[in-house]
User: Fold these one by one.
Assistant:
Number 1:
Amino acid sequence: MFQRIDATDVVAAREEILNLIQGNLKNNIIYFDGWGGFGATAVLRSIAQAIPSMKSPPPKLCFGRTIYIDCSRWESKRVMQRKIAEQLKLDRKTMAMFEEQDEEDDFNRVDHGSRDVIRQVSEIIAQTLRESRFMMIFINGSADEVSLSEYGILEYDGMVIWTFGRRFVTMHEYHGTHSIERLAENLRHTGLFICSINLSISQLNALFREEAANIAARYPFLRDIDLTMVKDCWCYGFFVRRKSHNTIGLEWAAHAPNFWICDGIIQKGDKTREIVNTLDSEINFNGDDSLLGKVFDKMTEHSDSSHLLVEDYGSVDKYKKRPYRWISVTSKNKMLNDNMQTMLATASSIFVSFDKTVSAPRLPNTLFKQCNKLGVLVLSCCAFSFVSPPFLHCNTLRFLGLGNCTHQNNNTSSEPEGRDCITKWTSFLQSLWVLDLRYTDWGEILSEEKIGLMANITELNIEGARCWQYTGQLLEKMLPYLQRLRIIKPTHQEETTSLDINNSFVGKKQLEILDLSGNSYMKSLPTSLSEASKLQVLVLDGCDGLENVVLHNSLLRSFSFDGYGPASHWTSTGKLPPMSSRPEGPSAVDNKKDVRACKISLEGCTLLEDLFLRGLPNLEELDLSGCAIKVLDFGAMVVDVPRLKRLFLLGCENLRAIKWGSDVEQSQLELICIDTRPRVGCARPLSLCAQQKSFQLHTIFADARLARSLCALIDSAPSEDAHCYFNINITSSATCMETIQPEATTDKEKVTGSIDDQRHYDIAARDMYCDIFTKVGNSPTPMQAFPQGPAGQLDRHIEIGDGSRSVQSEVEERRPNLALLMGGYTESLHVHDVSTCSNTMPIGNWDSLRWCRVERCPSLHAVFPPGAEDGNGTLETIWVSDLLMARCVWSKAVIHYYSVDRFRSLRHLHLRCCPSLLFGLAMGERPSFPSLETLHIVHCGELRHVFVPGDADEMYQHTSVEFPKLTTIHLHDLPALQQICEAAEMLAPVLETIRIRGCSSLRRLPAFNEPGKRRPTVEIEKDVWDALEWDGVDARHHPSLYEAPVHSRYYKRRMLRTTVLRYIHPYELHLLL
């Protein structure tokens, strides 16, 4: 449905729309197109202000809530939903969902523009809006219609008015009803389309002011700004855009913020840069060029017009004789005469451009003689005397831009001489704030003498002339207020190489932007660049000669090094050139160039988050340590670096994800170091000595979700054990340091420890409790002693420690995340001091795990949860200590066919201080432990059996379990232990040593299924030995098959099972206190 209204201003349009709503309107979603796309946002803002302020509104205008959502700067659906939630003032818990989901999407490498709504929030919004009738007013800055039901906005509960509004000026032209239908044909969710008629220039000017108010309303610091100033900035931007569109020559539109300041529209002050950057981002022009041209032409004809475009055709006399502020003169071959002096006299900005395909015409000497208000002067393809330019006496000039201008001597002798010449130059150069020279080789103005006079220059741009080496040497201790410096695309290099540029930035304390694009012969950056303490943007595109780029500027925010070459144009604000202005690829000439950069170090650039590196075929090392990068994207930020071998990301606290790009499999990366802890204390890991690895990964991070970014990288690394190494530490501890194995350490020693290590035991609080360490027989080792855990990291190691986050959520779902790395690739695993997780291990196959060490995790329910499987039978050592709540080490579950190899390689089982442990390991389909050598268990008060049937349904029952290599059994303080294997005979033919104490419920020892073996020694309390049950000699299970037992030297009265202190380990006591 279409509706045309006749309103000519904001108030009239608002009232007509409200009248339509009060009528018998059956459509709850209305689209307002304004006047050819213009002015709609101002009308909607007016409606949003009017409805809540009505004292006695008509029934159909009674709304319990009025929601005004300005998404003219479109970011994503998520951002829009957040604005709705803020308008509804939803509770903190709901608002926290946005932070949580944004963080989750960061780790999932989801682009900001692709972030969808949060379903739970949509449900809360819908529930909130059901409480009363609402009106939603929505400015849509995206390219598509939005389905509001996704956000929880159900139109039948209220009224929705919306429009497309993509910044300040959006215009399109109607050509009959069919064009309107084409415009509205994609609005599937909209019931009514409203548009208005064309406007006169005075009405259009009034709308410009309303739109200016709309801009000011978006930013708190602009609330008190003069709207006339905003409108003038818009008019000037329109003027520059039309001038550039019609001009044959250079594009100067990027200088709009400088023009506003130098012209005097915006006065210099504390917030000047913030204001101009904001307005520059807001003021742009979308729409049909022909329509914008018609509007501009009408504005030019209006009596209040402040601008004038003088075209090549027609006579100057045809233009109205009145003052103009901004004048543009465009000509292909027409000479400018002195009779234009009067017209130019009152101008504050003048643009003169000739056709560069013909010989540049000479400007009259007195052309700008009467210009006493001139602040901006831009000359393109003009000729004048470089010795005595025609604007030399313009003492108010703030901006001078010259493009493709040439020197031509004056025909008269009116050039100033002597002291008068020096005075004019001094006055002229001291007034300049911005100097922009493009393909204008004016060596005189760049002489040391003239640069010394530019006391107030804040921006210097030189394009297509002298190289950096020449200009850089002149900047030493000069231009103290310089904020932006661009010396780009030089057309010729200096013949001498003796120019010293290392001190170029001495005294440049105000420099914020430095662009040296295209200086291909520059071999190194000046050493004094570190003195530019406020540097925020550095662009080195096309600097092919640089070999090492090392920067430590702490305020640097943006860095670009594009080996494909310089961008076609730069931006006015402190942002890197957009992709639209960059080369699509290396040219035929560039392909033959040698881009030498082999190392880039931005270590210590703590604010750096905008990075672009491309086309650097020799880059081997990239150091971004300490940078603020949140997502490092090898598909958009670091591209075409085929020889990159070393990547350092130490101290990158904000790092959430790494997107490796499509060519990760072809990568030659050899070493990656990541540490997301604060920069203090971070250091590069030691080099591996044992073997030469083709790929090494060293990481320390607190949030386990960062492991998602490592899966593709590890998966694409060489699969052979000898070629791939990773050490992943998940912790926030500042004391975490990487352990590197000695050169002679073997894999076997890494898993079990060396022979000497096995002789060292860990005795808790030995000095404090030395009186209760009872010795058995003549053994020098106390019964409470416990072997030290495996400390030698294998080639693929993961450690999870204190301060780790998101571990449990990451291991409970196996996908490309931590669970996949642990189960699929990890050889050694150390989990410790994780206080909040009930589970730290994934289910599924553990394909490579060889040793596992778990300790001091008081909330852990089981070390390996139901569904975990030693599928390849690689696990050799299990070492567990101080798990207060764990009920088992390896959980029971449904047994699958691939559990046949479970514990095939297990050699050592060490358990200590697990007071809630009921059993140790659930066995597989074929229960046997063909490699087990050592069984050492102490202080597990509730342990009943060490090995139990593995199936939860007890479908698999076995009468015996074989331990063909078991030599040592050490059991201490296990009062509930009944037998080692539940409901099965334990066969250990090579058993050598049994040491038992504090196992009062134990009833059976292992049997021997092979005769003729040496009898094992036994150390055990006499009452326990006497209570043991035997099957007889024929069953190879009889006391005579053991050496005579050695009993305790001292006996203690047996304590009741209910005595608490009997089972409190010092570590537990510490936790209780």
Note: DSSP finds 23 helices and 50 strands in the chain.
Number 2:
Amino acid sequence: MATGGRRQDRLRWSKLYTFSCIRPQVSLDDEQSHSLQGPGYSRVVHCNQPKLHQKKPLRYPTNYISTTKYNIISFIPKAIFEQFRRVANLYFLLAAILSLTPVTPFSAVSMIAPLAFVVGLSMAKEALEDWRRFMQDVKVNSHKVSVHKGEGHFGYKHWQKLRVGDIVKVEKDQFFPADLLLLSSSYEDGICYVETMNLDGETNLKVKRSLEVTLFLDDDLVFKNLTAIIRCEDPNPNLYTFVGNFEYKQQVCALDPSQILLRDSKLRNTTYVYGVVIFTGHDSKVMQNATRSPSKRSKIEKTMDKIIYILFTFLLLISLFSSVGYAAKTKFGMPHWWYLQPNKTSYIYNASKPALSGFYHLVTALILYGYLIPISLYVSIEVVKVLQVKFINHDVHMCDEEIGKPAQARTSNLNEELGQVATILSDKTGTLTCNQMDFLRCSIAGVSYGVGSSEVEIAAAKHFASEASGTSDQHISSTQDIWEDTWGTFGSSEIELVDGKSFWVKNPRKTTIKGFSFEDDRLMHGNWVKDPNVGAILLFFQILALCHTAIPESNEKTGGFTYEAESPDEATFLVAASEFGFEFSKRTQSSVFVRERYSSFGNTIEREFKVLNLLEFNSRRKRMSIIVREESGQIILLCKGADSIILDRLSKKGRMFETDTIKHLNEYAEAGLRTLALAFRLLEESEYSAWNAEFLRAKTSMGIDREAELERVSDIIEQDLILVGATAVEDKLQKGVPQCIDKLAQAGLKIWVLTGDKMETAINIGFACSLLRQGMKQICLYLESHNMSSRDSMITSQAAKDNILMQINDASQLIKLEKDPNAAFALIIDGKTLTYCLEDDLKNPFLSLAVDCASVICCRVSPKQKALVTRLVKEGTGKTTLAIGDGANDVGMIQEADIGVGISGVEGMQAVMASDFSISQFRFLERLLLVHGHWCYKRIAQMICYFFYKNIAFGLTIFYFEAYTGFSGQSVYDDWYMLLFNVILTSLPVISLGVFEQDVSSEICLQFPALYQQGPRNLFFDWYRILGWMGNGIYSSIIVYFLNIHIFYNQAFRADGQTADMVAVGTAMFTCIIWTVNLQIALTMSHFTWIQHLFVWGSVATWYIFLVAYGMSFWHLISGNSYHMLLEALGPAPIYWAATLLVTLACNIPYLAHISFQRALNPLDHHVIQEIKYYKKDVEDQHMWKRERSRARQKTKIGLTARVDAKIRQLREKLQKKMSSLSSQTQS
């Protein structure tokens, strides 16, 4: 491989950055190196000698990773265990074993074959799903990376073949294949840029740096004879910590996280880096944060197990009753039954040992009454779920047209869980956002610029305008309509508010400039030079162009520049500055160059600004400053930051525009825009020199107080600022995210955001996607950062807990005392505080507070914390949780949640590989839950209830007949009838119910989101409904059996006067069962297709066809007494057809009456909608349709609708004030 040259012309960032890139000192002894003694610090890595780690005691795992549930060895035992976790399968296994004994009423094959088929089919499905995971693992493990093969030569290897100690060369935009120690990079000072979005969700680039002693390792050939030793911590899940020493040529250097490149992070803005592999495969930190693929079961399936327990208990009771009855008959009746030859005894028939005979009969009864427990239930559910998955996978409305990725259900076990979700836990970066900002407005010198409107403003004004025009009756109750046509034909409008001010709303133009949607001719095209405040405007643009850490890269296609910035905000400000005529064009070690297009000279000139100091942004400072020297020699400090921070640092003379700027900031915030305040300060040479000397002392100091000292010194110079203005950018979310969150909120779902981002970023995103809004009361749980000694850590930890508990109690009390019904609370917490809140003594109060809040945002959380929060919500609330994310940092929570959804975006596939369902964009979650989730839940719930109904109705008739015949163990039905009952005659209708049933269409599901609450409230699978269906089955069994017995018992049904024998009665009863259960499922269905008609009525027809065929002459050896049963015996008898009609109607009329009374007196939501649609009232009576749509959304305090409602309340208040003012003026 060709060697790469180092980029000598690029910057030495270690001289530019304030709080980072300060290299640790190299020690020649162990005094300053880390102490690595004791457990947890035993890892030894021999650099460039990977073979030493393939044998004991340094045998480390390979870089192969696996996310599958099974392997070749474990599949059979684990899959069998999974199948026999199901109670019904355990029962049928017992029955299959007993069928090998002489006491069985059926053949062994008839019991073993169905069980083997059901279990085998389920295991095959599990194998197929795990095979797909395996193939995705193969894809990841097969990625290639350049590895040192010896003698200074590098070649490509698969990731899975990497070993600890390997030297690897990673190139720009490649992912790191394992956890590496950075040795050198293409920059001369050994720094590189890393994107860690897959790990912590942050899109800004991290700066990593190599040790000073390894800087010379900048070429392939120098690794020919390299040997060094790394002693470090053992594998652990902590992403942000690392402790170790690097031993090279008698030098010992301390290692920290700034030298570590973690697996699944990406190299950016750096041509190449060299690194040595420290942790491989499942030892890597990202995999340490992952958990094994769990075996998830839906709540319906768990409830189904309880039903099986109930039915098994019932089966045991009636079997005991039957065995006692049989023992009594054997003891007291058998001696008198001479025709049974009682003297010829056996272990089954022995009058002298009735208890033993009763015990054997108990085994017979347990098998005979087994039809109470449907063996085909599980396999039918498996078939239905697989078909449901096909519909999900092929839903064109969930396919991303741009990248062509459809939704994918990676498991079919959890389809119905999609319809019961109560809480969604979402990642932020890459899930909610697309990491794009748009510069929309600004305030300069107290004047607001920018005429474009945010989505929230457009929607609120559209709704308000509809009220003002007198159409409020039709539109006041349907704020959700706003989002269906936000960018439609509404156009521009003007609404006059208080004090004659006009509120302009204008549809945004289609901009071709990414990140710049600003529209205002006063600032564009150089018109700002004519403005009275030209000096302030010039400073504003200079702050945008200078106060940053970005790097410009020439764009050959456009002739301009693209910017690699640490945050999307910085890149947006640079694009805006360029559009305003101030193009950041070059950065050197000591200068920044800006091209000014609208200078006083009339042509484009390039100005140089000497960079003296750069004071970085961090979450504590909430501001960033740059000190530059202009070409005139003037030293100036330019500062941007949070408005609360900047306004507190203004001088008395610098508050000239403060009042107007604060007003504009509030307006921007109400519009959902992210704001920053901009200020400056002119510095005297002597003042700067004195401050800089102190600053350099703090910067070069080493110790635990260095950061605090730097912040103190920086704070000194960032005082007495002069306010220039403020910026307002719109945070570009993924397409449809606000609307999706709005619909989910209307459906009654709670949404938590768990992100690795800073608190400020997360809050801004919360505002952008309407999880937060202006006027919402924010409850922030946080701890002040304090340095502490180890001996005080226990005391400090307890004090921290007490402090957090006090904050939680105060916040809970605040919520309880709130009187305003429209008041909304948001809980915001950082990772450090969350660590304490997840401990046993605080987690319950924390969860109680979080549940009371409208939205919850957890910031700076690690992957492990995401999983722990998910577990807390899942176990603490007892409700279904869904976790959604797109990166490796989300794998833990995706696997911990009841349902895990992975975003199959552009950054890696780790989340998708660990998920249960994958979608390409967050907005598809709306359809996945509200449509497919709603349908799947109701289909599975109705299907299971019906299954138990039909088996109870059928199975109890066997018990009644056995009791009627002296507990003889005789079945009234032919064996073939019983075999076909579940397999053919009733299986297809119930499968069609589970696959095609729709209470309402997909459009209605989305228009009436409150319908979704039928799932979380479990309306269709609660015990009231389950027991109701069981009761219906018992009622049907009584009617079928006793009516048939009464009709056929002692009257002739043939022309020659013959009475019915057992086979005739059994066939007549079975006919009634087939008609009853199939008519019942027809009454249950709301939506018919030709397939359902075919399956339901085809099943009935199949029964008659089978009877004819079964009675044919070539079947006579099998059919026995059923020979020509339909054609000769039952068919010509009118009583047979009359009994069938009478029994079928008697069984189904009560259910028909029940659903009729329910629809008339206590209709459910979907009943009302069905009736409206049936009578076409949605077309003929729009007013009623709008009213019903308004009622069909849960009252929510988050989402676009809630935000617009708040905006409308605000506008109404302003109008009321204006009307009151005008009224008082008129009266005076």
Note: The CA atoms of residues 147 and 799 lie 50 Å apart.
